[in-house]
Amino acid sequence: MEDPMEVRMGITEYLAELPEIERFCTVDELHDSVERLARERPDVCRIRRVGSSRLGEPLRLLSVGHGPRNALIVGGPHPNEPIGLLTVRHLARLVADHEELRSGFTWHFLPCVDPDGARLNEGWFAGPYTIRHYHSRLYRPAFADQPEWTFPVLDERAYFDRTLPETQALARVIDELRPDFQYSLHNADFGGVFYVLSDPVPGLAEDLAEIAASQGVPLSLGPVDTLGWPEAGPAVYLMPPAEEILAAHARNGGEPRGGGSSTHYAKRHGTTTLITDAPLWYDPRADDTSPAGQAYAAVLRAAAGRLREDADVLGEVYDSVLPHLVVPTPFRAAVADSLATGRAFADADDAMAATVEGREATVAEQFSAGSVPHMLRLRGAGLLRRQLAAETAAGNVSPPLRAAARRADALFDDWCAQAEQELRAEPFGLRRLVALQLGAALSTVARLTSERPITSERLTSDKERGR
User: Fold this and answer.
1) Which residues of 294-331 are buried (b: 16+ CB within 10 A; e: fewer)?
2) 2-22 residue pLDDT tens
3) How many CB atoms are located within 10 Å of the residue 332 CB?
4) Which residues have C-beta within 8 Å of that of residue 254, sequence separation ≥ 6?
5) What is 4-283+428-464's CATH number?
6) Cβ distance 182 to 151 under 8 Å?
7) Residue 261 to residue 257: CA distance in whole angstroms
8) What CA–CA distance (Å, rounded) separates 213 from 258?
9) Residue 156 CB: number of other CB atoms within 10 A?
């Protein structure tokens, strides 16, 4: 790769090549575009199969370039987060078209690590990108059904070894490539962007903030699912060890619902992993650090109470109909897991509240804490409605099921109306979100090139490892 400073200065020019993007791509469209690129550029592109999904769909890896280091880009680690599918499409094309981006790295793309789950979200991919439309067609798998969070953890405090076929495929790729850089492409819901790093990279937090600002995307300065995690900079968090994350569930009386992440697994090879959580909807409160006029502990405890109340209300509907469900779908496990997730978030809020007594919340912190109940209640209600719709379509129209469907519909309508009133929820243009994720990738490889120059000793080591 060319001089890292020149790459950072040239990122704006690379991003200018992005076309306008009207909608999310389907899994078939993504795979077609990747295969077309490989046919058009056989001089720099190779595709091979690396595994299978649970439903038997081939998982293929696109490799672009012949650089001495490896960068692994993982699309669709959560199937309701499709911005990364677009980023894979455009980043693969970009590095194929620019030799200077391939001189330091070979880029490897796993376009969609969970195609089965992504297909269950395609009903909202074409828009409109409203709160109601998104949540009525959403599928968010249970933790145990997420390729991103089912890597083995062999610690007695939080043991997990129920890895999925997709997880196993990704693990094999990581072990083979031993990547210097791994990039996991995620979405947030409301507000602004935040990042997660496996380890600090000097200067990168500033680069990431600059990329976000250049695209008009605010930083998420109130933590959502990174509450209490160490920070490397504003909205840049450091991933805690898997054992620490899972042990927290055990301390609160629960069993681990999943395992470690790809970030944890890749650390055995010295890999630097970046996660970019790009938001679907804008809200100006996301980066507002002015005083909120309310104690932060009170904000967190109020959110915890709301989360538990929502889980109790939706759980009552779910429990009432559970003995009458007969259609085997992934929605059923997802509903149960969403209820457990809401209670886990409530526990985390209460634990954090005990550490921030006496401090006033910022507007950003107040906004983030308040947005989480909206996010989780709508996911749970939307998933329950999809399960009940599947039952009805199969001919299961028993009185208990019809009563539960009416109650679930009423909750969903009420919760959508509240979210639309309390959250601005203005959708970001998809082009700027792809530019955000793409720019973060280029900034990271530039920093890693600067921080870890290639030496003859390192090249020898790489060859010995079969890289």
Assistant:
1) ebbbebbbbbbebbbebbebbbebbeebeeebebebbb
2) 454 555 558 989 999 999 999
3) 20
4) 340, 344
5) 3.40.630.10
6) no
7) 13
8) 34
9) 8
- Please tell me the number of Cα atoms within 13 Å of 80 on its side-chain side: 22
* Arithmetic mean of pLDDT over the chain: 93
One-character DSSP codes across 304-334: HHHHHHHHHHHHHHHHHHGGG--S--HHHHH
> Of 279, 294, 155, 153, whose CA–CA distance to 221 is shortest?
279
Q: What pLDDT score was predicted for residue 209?
A: 96
Structure tokens at 159: 């043991």
Please give the Cα distance from 385 to 267 (Å, whole number). 39
- Domain extents for the chain? 4-283+428-464, 287-423
CB 261 within 8 A of CB 147: no
- What is the rounded distance in angstroms from the CA atom of residue 226 to the CA atom of residue 66? 36
Q: Tell me, what's the pLDDT at 249?
A: 64
The residues pairing with 376 across neighbouring beta strands, listed in sequence order, are: none
Residue stretches of the chain with pLDDT short of 50: 1-2, 4, 455-467
CA atoms within 13 A on the CB side of 164: 28
3-state SS, residue 159: coil
Beta strands in 150-251 (DSSP E): 181-191, 194-197, 231-233, 236-238
